[in-house]
Design goal:
The protein is of the alpha/beta class and 452 residues long. The chain is built from 15 helices and 19 strands. A hairpin with a 4-residue loop joins strand 6 and strand 7. The longest helix has 16 residues. Its EC number is 3.6.4.12.
């Protein structure tokens, strides 16, 4: 059995709220398809975002940013994710709610600097020993989670990789087993495991591999079955952010006794950043690396104050700056900490630098398709009547509330020994969990009994 050293790093979560988005879903002429790449509707906003992507690729977004304006639940974050996907799979994408900037002990300028450096990547190329092939068989051993006794977690795995010329069965430990599960690795997938770090990369699906499940329409890249040995030396491209390199260098420079205080404060010395910039410049000159401009997305931008806006305005003018995307659901409102009213709560000097893209509420057909996409992503099966009921709830209340009812409805269905959600399950779930309108009505009804 081949031994593989494991990578000690956080595992990506499966099926996050925007994990299904692959791009903007535009045709060759830049026109939005009704359903494509995980997006539904919002044709005008998607087409405008497509123009922005072209401007970025042509290097014509210097000094400019993007502002999405629209009611809650109209896909502003989804469009920001789609722009990052269109720019490339390894494009850094940093998302934050503006209020988070004020929820730590760090200075606003330090947090914003870290966010900007998290949004600029360094693509590094190097020769590595890897295991690469088509997954022929996969066996996962699970046990009770050490953190949560009520759940099970992968503890080890046995995986058989094959190419046209070779086949190997690998025994791997907990970290790699968790990656296999979280990435949804299945029979017929073409994967690569870094022998040094243990990082698992899903490259695509093998074309015509026996026993693999395929679909008429695939969002996953379809590849030929690899040739050569399973265990080989290959040039690996790794994308790290400037902030990753900052933290790595800062940790190495610290004495062992100071490590804990470093991670408590999380302040990064400016000298460390200058040293990282020098190293990256050397790598680029040597042809070992290249810069990848990423996306910094700040939601609820109206909660930023003048100091933060001034910092972002200066950052846009910098030679090395990410693509700044702001989002808000406010109209004419006061800039935080002042009595100055401004459109969207953003100073006019920054607004003049932003390309503003409006988003509109979804109609019933669009809500239905979005619910279907989310159900597929969560591997939830819906009865047609249940889908209609969820669509009705989405129209009358909100899309977010309707989508949030999917998993509670599945729990209720499973209690009735079913894996298919029926309309009665949705009705019960909607009674158990209030929407905003009913919550407000409840508060008014029992206003005298509630604390003030």
């Amino acid at each position: 059995m081949s031994e593989i050293r494991e990578l000690k790093k956080p595992i990506r979560e499966k099926a996050s709220i925007h994990s299904h988005i692959k791009g903007l879903g535009l045709d060759d002429n830049g026109k939005a398809k009704f359903i494509a790449d995980g997006l539904v509707g919002q044709a005008e906003a998607r087409e405008a975002a497509g123009v922005v992507v072209q401007l970025i690729k042509q290097g014509k977004m210097s000094g400019k940013g993007i502002l999405f304006v629209g009611p809650s639940g109209t896909g502003k974050t989804a469009l920001a994710v789609a722009i990052a996907r269109e720019l490339g799979e390894d494009t850094p994408f940093t998302a934050i709610n503006a209020s988070e900037i004020y929820s730590t002990e760090l200075k606003k300028t330090e947090i914003l600097t870290q966010l900007i450096r998290k949004s600029i990547g360094v693509r590094i190329r190097e020769k590595r020993l890897v295991y690469e092939g088509v997954v022929k068989d996969r066996k996962i051993k699970v046990a009770r989670s050490r953190l949560n006794p009520y759940s099970q977690a992968p503890v080890e795995a046995q995986i058989t990789l094959t190419t046209k010329d070779d086949e190997r069965t690998l025994s791997v430990g907990e970290e790699i087993a968790q990656q296999l599960v979280s990435l949804g690795v299945k029979k017929g997938d073409v994967i690569m495991i870094d022998a040094q770090t243990g990082q698992v990369i899903v490259e695509g699906k093998a074309k015509g591999f026996e026993g693999a499940k395929t679909y008429d329409i695939e969002t996953t890249k379809v590849l030929e079955i690899p040739t050569g040995p399973v265990r080989k030396e290959k040039e690996i491209t790794t994308t790290l952010t400037l902030n990753d390199l900052d933290l790595n260098l800062a940790a190495r420079n610290l004495a062992v006794t100071a490590i804990f205080s470093f991670f408590t404060e999380r302040e990064i010395n400016e000298d460390v950043r200058k040293e990282v910039d020098r190293l990256v410049k050397d790598w680029i000159n040597q042809g070992r690396a290249e810069l990848v401009v990423g996306v910094l997305f700040i939601d609820d931008a109206h909660t930023l104050d003048l100091e933060a806006f001034s910092f972002l305005t200066r950052a846009l003018e910098s030679e090395l700056a990410p693509i700044l995307i702001l989002a808000t659901n406010r109209g004419l409102t006061k800039i935080r900490g002042t009595d100055i009213e401004s459109p969207h709560g953003i100073p006019l000097d920054l607004l003049d630098r932003l390309l503003i893209i409006p988003t509109r509420p979804y109609n019933a057909d669009e809500i239905k398709e979005i619910i279907k996409i989310r159900a597929d992503e969560l591997e939830i099966e819906l009865d047609p009547q249940a889908l209609e009921e969820l669509t009705k709830i989405g129209v009358e209340n909100s899309l977010r509330y309707s989508v949030q009812l999917l998993e509670p409805s599945l729990i209720i269905a499973q209690r009735n020994n079913r894996n298919i959600i029926k309309v009665e399950d949705v009705v019960v779930a909607s009674k158990l969990f209030s929407d905003v309108k009913r919550s407000v009505k409840f508060v008014k009804e029992y206003e005298n009994l509630l604390l003030k």
